[in-house]
Amino acid sequence: MKIKNYFHLYHLFSNNFSILSYLLTSAINSIAAKWGLPFSTIGMINFVGALSYITASLSLGRMGDRVGQKKLLIFATMIFGGFNVLGFFWSNVAELFAFSIGLNFFFGTFFPQIEGLLSKREKQIGIDPAMTINRFTLSWSVGNIIGMALGPFLIVKYPYITFGYGIILSFVASYILRHDFIKRGESIHFEPANSLKIPSKPIDFPKINLYRKVYRSTLFLSGLIYSAVLSLFPKVISMSGLPISLSGFLIVGANIGVLITFLVLGRFKIWVANPEISMIFLVAFPITVFLIFMPVSPMVFFLISLFAGMSYAVPYTYAIFYGLNSQDADEGKQGGFHEAIIGMIFGIGPLLGGLAIQLTSGLKGLGIMALGILVAIACIQIWFIRKIHVKQVIL
After folding, report:
1. CA distance 232 to 230
2. Helices (H), the chain
3. CB 30 within 8 A of CB 152
4. Of 128, 329, 371, 373, which has the most beta carbons under 10 Å away?
5. Which H or E run contains 329?
6. Residue 216, Ramachandran bin (φ over 0: left; ψ between -120 and 50: alpha; else beta)
7. What whole-number distance in Å separates Cα of residue 298 and Cα of residue 191?
């Protein structure tokens, strides 16, 4: 297998910027924990940043469909390269808020453009949409693992590496993007392996909006616990007596869970247009709820993170697959909607999770919150399956 026939330049961008994203977000949360900020404040930092992410996703996501995804990426990466310099001067909470806003605005711009570009241009060269989604999710999830594992360690021990990497990556990417745009315009130069062109099960487009609504709402609900774990566990782990610099190596279980899920769902596509099978894969969420109520230990922290990642990655796969399977040439718009959901997850999850932990002085509050979410997800899935079957009987 030649890797160049499975992945290309824009997967490399997705991977490297995902590393940077998690290096920076885990840096913010780790510094907040190091400074002794309360859970509610850490949650609010993430919430304000997420509002910025949502704003960028919704306002700029569809712009790429009109002016070109590559053009937006060229300017966004150039500006973000200069923005990373501000990280060297963190000294108070206000600066953490400001950096979180700028950071999230960039990534709320970056990911819808990458998603729209891949979905639109790979469709033109005959790649199966399921394989487009699978390779994209694999590229960023591998980056997440690296960024989350090293983020808390680097920001505490060697902060200049984190921001130096951001500066160099952004400026180099901007240069390469500009060169690629001048040479090829908005097209992607890629010779795909034949296996990438095998079509998946046809999607029922008349009902695709229903699929989108259900799986985006399921993604939002399940992602609340995932985002709470990523943002709040550095402080939770430090309160248990472990060094903050080691927290990333436990929380990285979340992104390992994401990667495992993407590998499985990408290999076995029996969930496509099959709500019953899709619901079975959601079993990771009740396991997460059970683990949250277990007595805390390093292994329990890792397992909670692992299954929380799986709980997030399953509906993420469904939501982005049905979202980007569009016949209306609006891939950037759909990518913007998808990333707005992600922004809501990373804003509301840490805020509610932080309040829940603070009210109960422990993970019990997060467990109660997760239990309520589990009931809501179960109701949505049962309603969805019944609705699909009713429509099939009518037809």
Report:
1. 6
2. 9-34, 39-60, 63-67, 69-83, 93-124, 129-157, 159-184, 208-239, 247-251, 253-267, 275-280, 284-292, 298-324, 331-360, 364-394
3. yes
4. 373
5. none
6. alpha
7. 45
